[in-house]
Write a structure and sequence with these properties.
Blueprint (H helix, E strand, L loop, with lengths): L15 H8 L1 H15 L8 H5 L2 H11 L16 H12 L4 H21 L6 H57 L3 H31 L9 E5 H9 L9 E5 L3 E5 H18 L6 E8 L2 E8 L20 H5 L8 H11 L3 E7 L3 E9 L17
Parallel strand pairs: 2-4
Antiparallel strand pairs: 1-3, 4-5, 5-7, 6-7
Helix pairs in contact: 1-4, 2-6, 5-7, 6-7, 7-8, 9-10, 10-12
Catalytic activity: ATP + protein L-histidine = ADP + protein N-phospho-L-histidine
InterPro entries: HATPase_C_sf, HATPase_dom, His_kinase_dom, HisK_dim/P_dom, HisK_dim/P_sf, Sig_transdc_His_kin-like_C
Enzyme class: transferase
């Protein structure tokens, strides 16, 4: 089993060079973490699961891509949201800037090449080109997502200020106008009291908003974190979603961690429900549970029509559905997947999707095994009030 974003259904198609590269994954990341902590100051104190992020998935996607007979070719490395989810997490969970995001990918590239060379793994010019093109494209996707996240935070602040201050400002305007035209001292006194009350309300609101910005406390799900085995939760989530004709296979292993049991169960139920709805009913749904560098990697895979690349991100937007879903007779994809994203982000992680004609569709929940330290991190998926 690999950590590739498609569950690696074609593991046997890996070339000898790709298998050698796969065997060196741990060595690559040990060296990369050493370099990144030494050279990028924003990374020096990051906890390991946050530092590693989605890069192991990118690495294993590269392993697939350099194998000539694998279904994932060079272009297929970028038919995923691995880069954009990485950029979004960096914006939400770290004090990175764009330069730091770019630097860590550059270090990832050269660390990979250096470790392969040190272990006498020879890669040809075409394989080098594939890796370089994939990393460069992923950098662009990560930077775009990072900048978008930063923009969302700014827009959310402006929108919150405008919305929350509009009501008391309107009331102040009205009472001021009434004071201006009133000739009764008692009435003017009452109106002045109302005006002062609205001013005090605005002052409290501004203090609350400034505190929110200072501590970066975006609106988020209220989680009740307990320790449990995600394998058991996945088992509970399977039953309500699967018809008599559809089978769900569980692969991987038990992973115990600190998460919110109810929200994680509902998130898995949503992913299974979507796999049942949009997948090939004659093919099984596969749920894989794995852990790497203190991160839970939970994937739900189904065969069937892929999500078009230009519509992948829309599945996570509230009330948005893909063109395929709108034109079919299936109801859904309006709220369920945005909810899954909220769950993943509130746990300090992310939700990604990989979809292709020959690979099927795989959704990945990638979160820290212990989410307790990350409960103050802002999320992007909340709806503005």
């Amino acid at each position: 089993m690999t950590l590739a974003s498609d569950q690696d259904k074609a593991l046997g198609a890996l070339s000898q060079t790709a298998r050698q590269m796969l065997s060196l994954r741990e060595e690559v990341f040990a060296e990369w973490m050493r370099r990144i902590r030494a050279e990028v100051k924003q990374a020096s104190t990051l906890a390991e699961p946050i530092l590693v992020n989605t890069l192991p998935t990118l690495y294993d996607n590269l392993v697939q891509a350099i194998s000539d007979c694998h279904t994932r070719d060079g272009a297929g490395v970028n038919a995923t949201t691995v880069g954009s989810e990485h950029g979004g997490e960096r914006a939400r969970l770290t004090n990175y800037d764009i330069a730091a995001v770019i630097a860590e990918y550059q270090l990832f590239r050269w660390t990979t090449f250096d470790v392969l060379k040190q272990n006498n793994v020879s890669i040809n010019e075409e394989q080098i080109r594939i890796i370089n093109c994939a990393v460069d494209t992923t950098i662009r996707e990560a930077v775009t997502a990072f900048a978008l996240a930063q923009s969302i935070f700014r827009e959310r602040f402006v929108a919150a200020v405008a919305h929350d201050l509009r009501t008391p400002l309107g009331a102040i305007s009205l009472t001021s106008e009434l004071i201006r035209v009133s000739s009764e001292p008692k009435h003017m006194h009452e109106l002045a009291g109302q005006t002062l009350s609205h001013v005090a309300r605005m002052d409290r609101m501004l203090h609350d908003l400034l505190d929110a910005v200072a501590f970066q406390n975006g609106a988020r799900m209220s989680l009740r974190l307990t320790e449990f085995d995600i394998w058991e939760v996945v088992h509970e989530a399977c039953a309500p979603n699967v018809t008599a004709k559809q089978h769900v296979h569980r692969e991987g292993r038990s992973v115990r961690g600190w998460w919110d049991r109810d929200s994680m169960k509902r998130a898995v139920e949503n992913l299974i429900g979507n796999a049942v709805k949009y997948g090939d009913a004659a093919r099984p749904i596969t749920i894989k549970i794995d852990a790497y560098h203190q991160r839970l990697i939970l994937t739900v895979h189904n065969e069937g029509n892929p999500i078009p690349p230009d519509q992948i991100e829309s599945v996570f937007q509230v009330f948005q559905r893909t063109k395929l879903a709108r034109e079919g007779d299936k109801r859904g994809w309006g709220i369920g997947l945005p909810y899954v994203r909220s769950v993943a982000e509130s746990h300090g992680g992310s939700i990604g999707v990989d979809s292709g004609e020959d690979r099927g569709t795989t959704f990945t929940i990638d979160i820290p095994i212990d989410s307790r330290p990350y409960q103050s991190a802002p999320v992007l998926s909340e709806k503005l009030e």
